[in-house]
């Protein structure tokens, strides 16, 4: 913090670049501290708790990097280096949802981002590894409560959403 504040106190060549990088370092250090002390800050579940567990972190990172992969409980457990039953139990305890539910939630978040950016439902379904646009639409509707088209319409016209 002292370096960051010292850098912002005087106008100098490269000040903005250096301050930006120092802030990035500070942010990473803060996130690491939160991961190491998740219990102390009252985190009772969720992604941070999952990332705080070394084995679960491997599986979560892999799922985030490759949401389109053909993930199964067994493949996630293998990445974590755990048995299926131990992985499923620890994941539910640490993250608060089952691995399958977490995967669905992550894929839907990715899909929503892509759809907002203008991607088609068909391209998003292919990108996320669904067998068809119809199977993606069913998963989306199950998770969100409305079809991707209806969700997009509500996002584009929030005043008309009811």
The radius of gyration over CA amounts to 20 Å
Give the structural class: mainly alpha
What ranges have pLDDT less than 50 throughout 5 or more consecutive residues?
Answer: none
Query: Whole-number average pLDDT?
Result: 88
Describe the largest sheet: none
Shape field: flat
Ends distance: 46 Å
SSE series:
HHHHHHHHHH
The number of distinct β-strands equals 0
Count, helices:
10
Percent of residues in β-strands: under 5%
Helix content: over 70%
Describe, in short, the structure shown.
The protein is built from 10 helices and no strands. The chain is mostly helical and 162 residues long.
How are the elements arranged and paired?
Blueprint: H1 2-9, H2 15-36, H3 47-52, H4 54-65, H5 73-80, H6 84-95, H7 99-116, H8 121-127, H9 133-144, H10 148-156
Helix pairs in contact: 1-2, 4-5, 5-6, 8-9
């Amino acid at each position: 913090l002292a370096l960051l504040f010292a850098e912002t106190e005087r106008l100098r060549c490269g000040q903005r670049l250096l301050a930006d990088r120092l802030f990035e370092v500070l942010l990473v250090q803060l996130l690491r501290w939160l991961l190491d002390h998740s219990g102390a800050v009252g985190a009772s579940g969720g992604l941070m708790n999952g990332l705080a567990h070394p084995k679960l972190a491997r599986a979560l990172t892999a799922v985030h990097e490759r949401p389109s992969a053909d993930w199964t409980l067994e493949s996630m457990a293998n990445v974590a280096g755990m048995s299926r039953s131990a992985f499923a139990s620890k994941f539910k305890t640490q993250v608060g949802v089952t691995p399958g539910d977490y995967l669905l939630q992550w894929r839907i978040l990715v899909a929503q981002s892509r759809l907002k950016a203008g991607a088609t439902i068909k391209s998003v379904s292919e990108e996320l590894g669904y067998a068809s646009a119809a199977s993606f639409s069913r998963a989306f509707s199950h998770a969100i409560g409305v079809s991707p088209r209806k969700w997009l319409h509500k996002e584009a016209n929030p005043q008309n959403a009811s």
